[in-house]
Amino acid sequence: MQKLPEGLAVSDLTQAFGKVPMAFNWLGITAGFVSAHKLGGPKGVGALVVKRGTDLEARIKGGGQEQGRRAGTENLIGIMGFAAAAKAAQNDLDQGLWDKVAQTRDSLLGALENGAEGVTFLGRRSRRLPNTLSMLTPGWRGETQVMQMDLAGFAISAGSACSSGKVRASGVLQAMGIHPEQAGDAIRISFGPSTAERDVMRFADAWLASWQRWRERNRGRKPQERMTMADLATSPELEVREGVDRETVETVQNMGSYKYGWDTEIEMEYAPKGLNEDIVRLISEKNEEPEWMTEWRLQAFRRWQTMTEPKWAMLNYPEIDYQDQFYYARPKSMIEKPKSLDEVDPKLLATYEKLGIPLREQMILAGVEGAEEALPRRARSRSMRFSIPFRSAPPSRTSWPRPA
User: Fold this and answer.
1) Interatomic CA distance for residues 401 and 398, integer angstroms
2) Cα–Cα distance measured from residue 27 to residue 340, given in angstroms and rounded to the nearest whole number
């Protein structure tokens, strides 16, 4: 695939092995490793290919297995499965199977290129794998695209398979000279021999529809002016905005700079301070809950009022004034349900990211239409079973299962 520099010690050949013509002695490396699962073989077995005459110190000592380089009983079943998968992969390569996959990839590239502007297809003029397409749309976060395509029924990635689940820019793209902010806008689409032309065209239609919505929302968009916590703390004259009472403003002014965490610029809708049955009903009404759930919350609140706080022997802390708290707050950007994360206040998304909230949960918390319905039924029922009385429910929920 690439002309490797002389004297390179080790190369990861896992992706290319079985998909492109290659031979170890062409590469000029000391060692390379491959894995069976990329060929359809068993998981948990791989191979380290070492240049003849290379002296390797044993990492696991004790027995003479693997020519004394790795002690321990070999996984014979896994090794035989790897051998069978490698033989089948060689046959597929000889029959031109991966050339057909490359044609499918190029068909998708053409459809996306003809339908969208400003998209960069990474490595398109280089010798590359036949089964992946990496593309970058400046300003459109990769993880947002992943979630939108997931809701549309397609599984793609915002990074390599090795970094699945991590929300950060690809280090490989940065090493290729792409700015970290732009690297975070990249996605990776993978194909296989069973991927049909009609499948990639369906994906193209779904992605282009999302791209068009994103483009319309961001055409000529200017950052909205919002007041930060720092502004509240330093400004002598402040307008009391809808949903925020004078007491809140004065409290923030007296507080000064926030010592822990960080400030946020998200404009919020608040309920009055304190906890009583009216606040409980308000929370339930805001979440569009049925009457039986409102009553359930009220019963929990009445039970809580009868409870006494335990006294711990070795623990001292200031008495908590439970009536000096806000029990309901919602970003104003969530009052109207967004269609996707692209419509959510970027400051809210930044706060979610600082808190380490996974993307799917971000969509639920932000009230994205259809986000919670996309969760497995078991996960939804588990979320309801373990919810606490005053937890703010997702605003996208329109039906509520009665408790058993």
Assistant:
1) 10
2) 46
What is the three-state SS of 47-67? EEEECCCCCCCCCECCCCCHH
Is the domain of 103 the same as that of 213?
yes
The predicted pLDDT at position 242 comes to 42
Query: By residue range, what is the domain housing residue 19?
Result: 10-94
State the pTM of this model: 0.52
Which of 8, 10, 60, 162 is the catalytic position? 162
pLDDT digit string (tens) for 283-328? 888 888 899 999 999 999 999 999 988 777 666 777 888 888 888 8
Q: At what angle do helices 277-286 and 291-305 cross, to 10 degrees?
A: 150
Provide the number of structural domains found in the chain.
2
Last residue within a domain, chosen from 67, 94, 121:
94
SS3 category, 132: strand
Residue 261 has pLDDT above 60, yes or no: no
Rounded percentage of the chain residues whose pLDDT exceeds 70: 73
- Alpha helix ranges (H) inside 169-325: 171-175, 180-183, 197-218, 229-234, 246-255, 277-286, 291-305
Are residues 57 and 27 located together in one domain of the fold? yes
Report the phi/psi class of residue 271: left, alpha or beta, with left for phi > 0 and alpha for psi in -120 to 50: beta
And the tokens for 312?
């711990």
3-class DSSP state for residue 230?
A: helix
DSSP of 149-206: HHHTT---BSS-GGGTT--S--HHHHHTT--HHHHTTEEEEE--TT--HHHHHHHHHH
Distance CA 100, CA 87 (A): 19
11 in active site: no
**Alpha-carbon distances, residue 200 vs 99, 119, 129, 287 (angstroms):** 16, 17, 17, 39
Both 123 and 206 in a single domain?
Answer: yes
